[in-house]
């Protein structure tokens, strides 16, 4: 019985959309995709002790479980539609599920995402979300279209989420990490920017594991290299206050995960168009370098002299292990 009352809490906040023919309650959901659209699908899992610490509010876990998936759709230039939620709980905790559902729904409702099904099981606390979105046929932005000579851009600011984590690990209570903590707990998926970049960006990836790690994937898939301007990395005031030292800033900004900004390439001839398209969706973006022939990734200082790259580029589940 308890399982169904938990599912009912989620169902109450599931939302609805005209393309959802059948949502929560049957053996599977039925969705009617609009004509001429391709489906874009992604899944991402958050595990307690790996992706979030014990004691993070349930509402933040609910928000983030959806946010990290919507960020993947944003990076593809897709418009999100529906989500499935596989929730594993150590026990039947209705208050937890209520709070989780509220956090999930707060973000889902903002982007008109309907929760259409899922699975509820017992075990170590884990939230796995699958999202489906749409793009006009052939218009998805991939990691593989970047060209030598393209500008390299990133939305928003880098390092905030990793900064919150670093402060917390150094013993500063999360409550006192303010704006940085918000970035870690409730990341904002850049969906508007992703849509705006269709037809402008030649390649795009979301920064989930760290700029160097994720940019590295884009470069490898596109068969290009990059010259990164070390002084151009966009930095928030909160981050600068918390980490005044240049070196500490740079390490967190280059290798810290969980920012969920978009890193993308576009030809220099589209610079103004990129700026206008992103301004129209109120998303700041900064040019952080340019793409080159070959496979080399360089970090350049103000005199265009190469700086050493950190040995560790970002988070890897199998070499870094649980936090
Ligand atoms: P089945 O046994 O046929 O897989 P379940 O009993 O697991 O069905 O689930 C009943 C209904 O509730 C299904 O429609 C399923 O998609 C939905 N559901 C179960 N768990 C969740 C969840 N965590 N979030 C959203 N929907 C859920
Ligand atoms: Mg069934």
- Uncertain segments of ≥5 residues (pLDDT<50)? none
CATH structural class of the largest domain: Alpha Beta
- For the largest beta sheet, what order do the strands appear in spatially? 8-10-7-11-9-12-13
What small molecules does the structure contain?
adenosine-5'-diphosphate, magnesium ion
The CATH topology annotation of the largest domain reads as: Phosphoribosyl-aminoimidazole Synthetase, Chain A, domain 2
The span between the termini is 35 Å
H and E string: HEEEHEHEEEHHHEHEHHEHEEEH
- Number of helices in the DSSP assignment: 11
**Share of helix among residues?**
25-40%
Categorize the overall geometry.
globular
Strand share of the residues?
Answer: 25-35%
Q: What is the typical, i.e. mean, pLDDT?
A: 94
Q: Give the name of the CATH superfamily of the largest domain.
A: PurM-like C-terminal domain
Structural class: alpha+beta
- Largest pleated sheet: 7 strands, mixed
Number of domains: 2
Radius of gyration over alpha carbons?
Answer: 20 Å
Question: What is the name of the CATH architecture of the largest domain?
Answer: Alpha-Beta Complex
Q: How many β strands by DSSP?
A: 13
Notable traits:
binds magnesium ion, 7-stranded mixed sheet, 60s Ribosomal Protein L30, Chain: A, alpha+beta, binds adenosine-5'-diphosphate, 323 residues, 11 helices, 4-stranded mixed sheet, Phosphoribosyl-aminoimidazole Synthetase, Chain A, domain 2, globular, 35% helix
Short description:
The protein has 323 residues and is of the alpha+beta class. It is built from 11 helices and 13 strands.
């Amino acid at each position: 019985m308890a399982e169904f009352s938990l599912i009912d809490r989620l169902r109450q906040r599931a939302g609805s959309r005209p393309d959802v023919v059948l949502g929560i309650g049957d053996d599977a959901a039925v969705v009617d995709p609009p004509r001429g659209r391709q489906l874009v699908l992604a899944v991402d899992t958050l595990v307690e002790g790996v992706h979030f610490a014990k004691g993070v509010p349930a509402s933040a876990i609910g928000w983030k479980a959806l946010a990290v998936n919507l960020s993947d759709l944003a990076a593809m230039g897709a418009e999100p539609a529906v989500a499935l939620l596989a929730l594993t709980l150590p026990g039947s905790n209705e208050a937890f599920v209520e709070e989780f559902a509220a956090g999930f729904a707060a973000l889902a409702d903002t982007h008109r995402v309907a929760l259409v099904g899922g699975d509820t099981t017992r075990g170590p606390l884990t939230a796995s979300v699958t999202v489906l979105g749409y793009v006009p046929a052939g218009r998805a932005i991939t990691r593989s279209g970047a060209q030598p000579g393209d500008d390299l851009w990133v939305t928003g600011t880098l390092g905030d989420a990793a900064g919150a984590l670093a402060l917390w690990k150094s013993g500063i209570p999360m409550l006192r990490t303010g704006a940085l903590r918000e970035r870690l707990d409730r990341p904002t998926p850049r969906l508007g920017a992703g849509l705006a970049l269709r037809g402008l960006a030649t390649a795009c990836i979301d920064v989930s594991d760290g700029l160097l790690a994720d940019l590295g994937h884009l470069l490898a898939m596109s068969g290009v290299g990059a010259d990164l301007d070390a002084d151009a990395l966009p930095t928030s005031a909160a981050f600068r206050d918390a980490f005044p030292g240049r070196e500490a800033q740079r390490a967190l900004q280059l290798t810290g995960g969980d920012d969920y900004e978009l890193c993308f390439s576009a030809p220099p001839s589209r610079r103004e168009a990129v700026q206008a398209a992103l301004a129209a969706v109120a998303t700041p973006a900064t040019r952080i370098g340019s793409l080159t022939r070959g496979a080399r990734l360089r970090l350049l200082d103000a005199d265009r002299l190469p700086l050493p790259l950190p040995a560790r580029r970002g988070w890897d589940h199998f070499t870094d292990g649980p936090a």
